[in-house]
Amino acid sequence: MIAGQEVILVAFGDQRISRVLVAVENAYLFVCRREEFEAATRENREPVCIGFRAEYLLEAARMAA
Question: What count of Cα atoms within 13 Å lies in the side-chain half-sphere of residue 48?
Answer without folding.
Answer: 3
